[in-house]
Structures are given as C-alpha cells and as structure tokens.
Amino acid sequence: MTKRDWWMWPFLPVMWIACYLNFLWSPDDAQLGPSQRIFYFHMGAATVVLVAYTITLVSSIAYLVTRRLSWDRWAAASAEIGTVFTAMVLVSGILWGRAAWGVWWTWDPRLTTTVILWVIFAGYLLLREWSDNPERRALYSAVVAILAYVDVPIDYMAVRWWNSIHPVVITSQGIAMAPRMIVAMFVSMAALLYLFAIWMAIRLRLLRAEAGLADIKNRLFLAMQELEG
Amino acid sequence: MTMSAVERMYLLFLFLAYAALMVVMFGFMGRMLRKGRDLEREVERLQAELGERAAPKAPPAVTPTVPGREVGHS
After folding, report:
1. Would an 8 Å CB–CB cutoff place B48 in contact with chain A?
2. Is B58's pLDDT higher than 50?
C-alpha cells in the first residue's frame, strides 16, 4: 500500500466497529434471538448491490453517449462486484430464512426477483467474454446493462407490490427496529460501501492495466507486420 | 428469546473471528492496490517506450536516422 492509498487505511477500524456493533452491541431480536444479527450484513450487502448496479447503469449510459472505453471499465467493474454482493445477499438471506421461516428457500417475490437479478448480471459478465473487440463488447454490454437494470426497481418494490413474507424494514412510517439495531444497520451499510469502494479501485486499476496491455499487443503486432511487409 | 452466558461467549468468538478475517482482508486488499498501481505504472512506461520507438513511421531510406544527404538530393 502506498501513501496515495491513504484513504484505505481507516477500513480496518471501520470494519471492526461494524462487527462489534453487529455481534456484541446491538440487542437480540425478541422472536429470532441472535440469528437477527445476520440481517446487518444482509442489508449492507443489499445496499451495495443497489449502488453497484446503479453505477453500472450510469456508466453504460455514459459510454453510449461519449463512446469512451473508461466508462465501460467502470460498468464492468461495478457489475462484477455487484454480482458478488448479490450472491452474499442470497446466501445470508437463505441462512436468515432458515432461522426465521424454517425453510432454506421459498419462491417469494423478493427472493425470486433477487435471484433473477443475479442470473441476469451473471449473464452480462458472460456476454463480456464473448467479444475481443473492446468497442463492440462495450456497446453490447451497455445495452444489456440498461435492460438488466429494469429488475432493480422491481426487486426493491416486490415486497410492496405483491404478497411477500419478506420483512419490510424501511417504511413510510420510519424504520421498524430498535434504535441500536438501526445504528448497527447503518454502520454495516457504510462499512460495506467502503469495502465496495476499495474493491472498485482494485478492479479499475487492473482493467486499465489490461486495456494498456491490449494496446501494447496491438502496436507490437502492427510493428511486426510492418517489418514483415 | 434470551441468550445464555455460553451463547454470549460464542458471539464474542464470532466477533473475534470476523475481526481477524478483516485483518487478512485488509492486508490482501492493500497488497492488491499496491500491485495494481505498480502494474499500471509498468504498462504506462512500456506504452511510452513503444510510442517513442514506433514514432518514425517512414522507412529509413526516406528519412535516414544518420545525418546526411536526402534521397533525390543532387
């Protein structure tokens, strides 16, 4: 880690504080007991998913408008991390559901739309591997990302539009939780968003280096062709 | 639903396990950030070097690198 990465240094204390609040400081749920604590990272991961896919959407639109490949790299990095966090949401949700509902999985609207979201963005990542032409890949990916994002608001509203057994935490009347639980939830959200930001920096650097290497390969290829010709 | 003292202790262990995991993750991410920056710098250096070398597009017969009379000059 260099001095230019100073912004990463508070990560450790922030994560420790989030873990302390989640595991030790927040109270047990009256009905679920300690299994309620899964919720804090579940909610935090879900927030990251929303932010990540929104960045993918905005970057994809920006690419279509400007045709600058740096926007495509932002979209790809964000979608990759968003897909990992969606898997985290699903796994933590499955564990929580087993404790709360007594079943590992049910085809509830929220669960179903979340798994669809995960599959769509996994497909988006597969599509990116199809073409070696950066411009063509960026164009197709941008269109698919915009179409895929349609499921994000549907996923968010699923518990409000249809009969769902998934709890609704944030309602128009406020947040239906004890004050300490609310603090733990928001700190977890902040900590996981911080993790997302660091991960984005890592991925963007690698993608920039990858693009640079592709450029070098192209130039060398052209130079060799010139020599042979 | 209240927890027993043993269950509370389990939560403490869980907290300690996660705290240790975060240290590992922090170290890994710090290393990745540094390596990513080094890699990016190396690629930029290679691009710059390649750019300098690839600059003279015309064959040496037309634009000789050694100072002298140009082709066709009487």
Report:
1. no
2. no
Asked if B14's CB is within 8 angstroms of A209's CB, the reply is no
Q: What does the pLDDT look like over A67-85, one tens digit per residue? A: 999 999 999 999 999 999 9
What's the sign of the alpha-carbon dihedral A6, B37, A47, A181? negative
Q: Give the start-to-end residue ranges of the domains of chain B.
A: 1-50
Find, among B43, B3, B70, B28, the residue nearest to A24 by Cα.
Answer: B3
Q: Which residues are within 8 A (CB) of A20 and not within 5 positions of it... i.e. 6 or more apart? A: B15
B2 touches chain A (CB under 8 A): yes
Helices A11-20 + A179-228 axis angle, to 10 = 140
Q: Is B14 on the interface with A (CB under 8 A)?
A: yes
Contacts of B18 in chain A (CB under 8 A): 19, 23
**The model's pTM:** 0.86
B32 pLDDT more than 60: yes
Task: Return left, alpha or beta for A102; rule: phi > 0 is left, psi -120 to 50 is alpha, else beta.
Answer: left
Q: Which residues of chain A have a CB within 8 Å of the CB of B14?
A: 23
What is the ipTM for the molecules in this complex?
Answer: 0.79
A5 touches chain B (CB under 8 A): yes
pLDDT number for residue B31: 92
Residues in chain A where the model's pLDDT stays below 50: none
Structure tokens given for B28:
């890994």
